[in-house]
Amino acid sequence: MVKQRGKLSPSKQRSRKGKRSGNKDLIEGRRAVAEALSLGLPLKQAYVAESTSRERDKNLTEIIGLLKKTHVPIEFVPRERLDGLSSHGAHQGIVVLAQPYHYAELSEIIDRADSKNALVVVLDHVTDEGNFGAIVRSAEVVGAAGVVIPKARSVRVGTAAYKTSAGAVLHMPIAQVSNLTNALEQLKQAGFWVVGSTEHATTTVWERPFPDRCALVMGSEGEGISRLVLESCDMTFRLPQRGRVESLNVAQAATVMCYEWLRTTYSSSSAAL
After folding, report:
1. Going from the N-terminus, what domains does the chain have, and what CATH number goes with each?
2. 139-193 pLDDT tens trace
3. 158 near 129, Cβ under 8 Å?
């Protein structure tokens, strides 16, 4: 007698969904996969929606060709399987399993900054992947030397970060550190001034220019900058505000701060822009 498989209970459905969306090494969508290929990101396996060659559009066909050229194993699977692998359903017919993200050492970011004007963005326990990806994207656009995050109670580079950063995590060195205050001390020793972004600061970004070598600290979504990290800051800035909304979210605030650093640091050098 064959038993019919009943519907999963809500708790088991949530459990399976959690397992499905928990793989941080999946890259979804054509743009993200193409970006990963262009940078030579080590890829383990590609999963492509089953279809005939006539049904595939030019863009997907080109990506398949690149996967074959770089000797990435390809498995053609039903679209339902891609839906099951996807964390958000926007896979566009392709999902790639990448090698785990290789985090940089803080010393590598410092070396990348060299002795010139430089920005390092330090995130104090930011946990939302969407915000994290947006911040990395902004940091990359303004030419930051790198991003620093703590190992504990913090976001990590995963599927959402590839998507929300528009591939910027592949260009931007990201270091995981055990102790943020120790990392800030290392940055100070390398000539960086530590600037905390907090709505409680008395000075706005318009009242004082950013230092040329700046470690910009952005606090977590709910708690802001933690006490010990705040005590390590050389100065604190806030964004000027006229409206009634309490504040911008951390990704929006980080973008404004990054561009304000770029404006004040390179305002006299049009060639840099």
Report:
1. 22-98 (3.30.1330.30), 106-272 (3.40.1280.10)
2. 999 999 999 999 988 888 876 677 778 778 888 999 999 999 999 999 999 999 9
3. yes
